[in-house]
Amino acid sequence: MFSDIQTDKRLEYIQHLGFDAYTNKQYKAAADLFGEALQIVEHQQNKSQIIYYKFWRAICYRFQQKYNLALSEYLEAISLKYDDTSPQDMFNIFLDIINVSISIPTTLESIERIIQKADLFVEKSGCASWKSMTTYNRATLYWRCGAQQQAIEAAQQALIIRKDEYPSYMLDNHYNGLIKMLIDVGDIERANEYWNKWTTTPNDYPVWRKKYRIEREIQFARANHNKEVAYYQSCKLISESFHINDIHQYIEACMINGFDDLAKPYLVDYLIQQRNSDSLYVRAFCYCMAGDYHYTKARRLANMPPVDIDYDAEGAFNVTKLQNQDLKLIKREISKAHQAYQNSLEICNTINGRLKTTYTSVRILSRIEIVNLMNNAINESI
After folding, report:
1. Chain-wide mean pLDDT for the chain?
2. CA–CA separation, 49 vs 40, rounded Å?
3. 115, 133 Cβ separation under 8 angstroms
4. For residue 266, what are the CA distances in angstroms to 221, 222, 231, 375?
5. pLDDT confidence tier of residue 87, bands split at 50, 70 and 90
6. Cα(87)–Cα(382) distance, rounded to whole angstroms?
7. Of 59, 12, 18, 76, the residue nearest 40 (C-alpha)
8. Per-residue pLDDT for 164 more than 80?
9. With the C-alpha atoms ordered 215, 221, 227, 232, is the resulting torsion angle positive or negative?
10. Under a CB-based contact definition with an 8 Å cutoff, are residues 49 and 30 in contact?
11. For residue 111, which of 153, 161, 67 has the smallest C-alpha distance?
12. Roughly what angle, to the nearest 10 degrees, separates helices 47-63 and 27-44?
């Protein structure tokens, strides 16, 4: 048996190893170490420390796309309701429960319920400015449900009520999300206004701001049909060695420029790591990107110029005289694209059922229509 002093030193050492692994993005190892620390503090019946290590193990699960395990840890932590835990720590758990619930997603009712509980906690804590965070969470939920204008208004309101008590990286998150929404609805003028305001705010987390701004520069470039700039910015993004989630920006930029050969190894790596995610959005997106890859390849084989499905008007499919062998290859890629999109649609329909919307499937349905049009054009050219 360890003495109390030995146990405390062992706990301190395990915590050090856990945060070292976390800093080096070794999230599985970090989760295991925080779990080991959790066993110690559970034996000591130290509620404050139990909440602390559950919180950090849940964060590590999130980075591994193990959202269901993360949600379970967060809910257990929040249920302990230990009075000595700081209000900010408890509020952070509320925020993570909301974010994980939206990422899975769970159900519309359960997400709305936890946001309401978080708002009530904010009122009781006396930290009114924290409501900017739950307001932004509502904006995200509205967007996922297809209520785009309501989402934008909530995101704007979150910026208005926010004060300096909360970390500035949250402000970066708000600006990043709002600008993304505005570009997506085609309101480039207002997106630029918020972009300029963003540059004047404190930059306490330069790494995250750099990442966010590169992502939005890619989106601005695509919205302005400047595919070359989008590709250049995506190269900058992956050169910074950000998270695996950032690779998709490079993959998409390759494909809209017709570089399916460059996209392929990154796409394979992305699919291997992400296809079993607990997030239905991620799994649907994996199939969507696979479909985009095969569609891009089919266009190249058919001597068609590359296209950005999300931002370009598709127009007519001008098919030149093709050899029989080319036709077989093209139709095979079209078939693969269609199947991938159908797989994505199936998952999107599950999300629609949970969130009581039809919005999630819109993007995929338009892609299915496009590959059908291309297939018809190919058939007519024979």
Report:
1. 90
2. 10
3. no
4. 21, 20, 14, 27
5. confident
6. 69
7. 12
8. no
9. negative
10. no
11. 67
12. 160
